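#struct-help
A.M.: can someone run this one for me? Single chain, 233 residues.
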Amino acid sequence: MAKRHWFREYFEAILIAGVFLAFTNSYLVKTFYIPSGSMENTLLIGDHLFVNRFIFGSGGGERGILPARDIRRGDIVIFRAPEDPNNDLVKRCIGLPGDKIEMIAKRLYVNGQEVRDQPYASNRDDRMYLTRDTSGVPLPGAPARDFFGPFTVPEDEFFFLGDNRDNSHDSRFWGTAPRRYIKGRAFLIYWSFGGETSDGKWTGAADKLGQIGRTLSGFFTQTRWSRTFHLPR
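D.P.: on it. Structure tokens below:
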């Protein structure tokens, strides 16, 4: 029997590994890194996450085979950005379909009840942005950061806020995200790097190689070891 050529063996092994990784990334586990401070202090700039892709299911064939449940209030969710579906966002689910959401002087109300148990939420800016004057007339161009709603979440859509409430571009500004945009739930920080973090934009091979070199040189000194294998809640 003729021996199989070594090139073919390596090619087949690489091909099988690539297919397995593509399947895993699409349906089971995806990686994601935090490029902004909108979820501080729950998630920090430079945190790298594993995303559970199958926990919410999709209503398709994998539901019933793999463990799945629906999205709950408080889940940290990765989803396609409604303003630009080519980009992904990470925010906390605050409103489910049918919920009435309102923000009054930085205080969150869901279905008419103030949400008091929010240990993850923070307000770091003492300024208060009003959306109406003293007579109730809307103020043109006023940001809906501190006063918002009341707003009812449409069917099969979800309302998201960042934990860093005063520094988060979220559903108060761009509306809700449809279920089909949901990618998964953040469940594990596998690496947290306090150094330079990529913004995901391609700026040339030389710049990318330089960034990789800086990351390698600062790996031991700038890695936040205490956050390794941390479960964000």
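A.M.: thanks! The chain is about 20% helix and 25% strand.
D.P.: also worth noting: The first strand starts at residue 29 and ends at 33.
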